[in-house]
Amino acid sequence: MGTITPYETAKGRRYRVRYRKPDLSEAQKRGFTTMREAQLYLSMVTVSKSRGEYIDPNASRVTVRMFADSWLRFKQPPMSKPSYYMTLERAWNNHVAPVWADREIWSIRHSEVQEWVSELSTLRSRTVVLRALGVLAGILDVAIDDRRLATNPARNIRNLPRTGPGKRRVYLSRDQVATLAACSAHPTMVLTLAYTGLRWGEATGLRVRSVNRLRKRFVIEENAVMTGYEIHVGTPKTHEKRSVPYPDRLAPMIELACAGKGPEGLPFGDGVHHMRNSGAQGWVRERGEACADDRSVHPPAHASRPRPYGRIARDQLRRQREGRAADARPRVGCDDARHLCRPLRRRSGCRRISPQRRHAAARVADGSADPLPPSAVTAERRLLSFGQGSRRRICPISSF
C-alpha cells in the first residue's frame, strides 16, 4: 500500500506519504499537517489504483499546446471537411492559443474557463465563442484519454452566450428575383440558386453528367467549397446524394449552359474551373447593390438587425466613408440566394415536405426505391413553374 512518516519543519510537524505507482515506480507527496489528511490521501491513491483510475500528478504537468498539435492533426482532412478544419484552426490560433497554449493542464480551473467565456462573449459572436470553447474542451479530452487529467474543466460550462436574433434574411418576390438575375452577369446561376435552394458549393460543383435534362433534376453528388484561396471538392454537407428538381422555364438556360461540354464539364462558369464566391466584394453582391435602386427590393423595416461585426462592419464603414448610408441597400449574396427558394414555393402554394417524403425522395435518388408517383411529379412541376402569375415583366430575359 504505502507508508506515512512524520518529519520536522520550521512550522512544526508534517507528514510524508510514500507509495508505488501502477508501473511500480516510487512516488511521494509531502506537506500534510495531520495524520488523518495523510491517511485519506493514501486511501484515495489505493482505491484509484484498484479501479484503474490512477493519474500520475507529474503526467499532468504538460502544456495545452502539447495536446493541441495532435488534436488538430486528428481533425485534418479527410477526417473532416477542409472548411470545418479551417474554422477549428482559426479558433485555436486566434482565441484559444493566446490564453491557454502555455498553461499546464493541471492548473486550469473551471472558474477560469467560465471567466474566459464570459469575456470572449462581449467581443465575439455566439458561434465564435462556442467554437473556441469546443476546441479547448476537445484538446483537454485528449489529455483525459491519455490518463493525464481526471476531469475536463472546459465541460459543463453553465453560463453560455444566448442565441441572438440571427442573420437578417432578405426575401425577394418573383419579380425581384428576375430583376436581380437581369442585372447579374450570371443570370442562370442566380435563378438556379433562387428556385432550387442549392447551396453555392453544390451549384458550382455540379457537372454535366449530374444534370438529368429529361426529368429536369439535379443529382447532387459533389460540393465545391472555397477554403481560403483554394477550392476543395468533396461530398455534400449532409454526406448524402440527393435529387433536386428545377423549373420547366429554367430548362432552356440549363440546356444552353451544358451545351458543348463533356460529362465532366461544369455547367456554370467556363466549364473547367469552378466559380469563386468572393464574399462581400463578389459579383452577386455588386449586382444586388446595383439593382437596389428599385425600392421593392428593400427588406421589411421590422426585420431583425443583429449587431454587425467583422466583414459586415467593415463594409458599413466603407459605405460611410463614401458618403452613403450604412444600410441603404439590401445585401443579397451567393449564400443568401438559396434561402429565397422556400418563400417562393410557399407563395406558390407548395406545402411543407414531411420527413417521410424527404426520406422517400432520398431513396429514389440513390436508386433504392421506385420513382415518385405521377401525381407527386405533376404537383411538383406545377409548383415549380414560376413566372406564370407575374403581372408585370421587368426582366429583359425573353424566357421569363
Report how far the terminal alpha carbons are from each other. 86 Å
Mean model confidence by pLDDT? 77
The order of strands across the largest sheet is: 1-2-3
The sequence of SSEs as H and E is: EEEHHHHHHHHEEEEEHHHHHHH
- Put simply, the count of helices is 15
Rg from Cα: 30 Å
Please bin the fraction of helical residues: 40-55%
Report the principal-axis shape.
elongated
Structural class, from secondary structure content?
Answer: alpha+beta
Q: Major β-sheet, in short?
A: 3 strands, antiparallel
**Spans of 5+ residues with little confidence (pLDDT < 50)?**
292-309, 354-377, 386-400
Number of strands: 8
Percentage of β-strand residues: 5-15%
Summarize this structure as a short list of keywords or feature phrases.
8 strands; 400 residues; disordered C terminus; 41% helix; three-stranded antiparallel β-sheet; 15 helices; alpha+beta; 11% strand
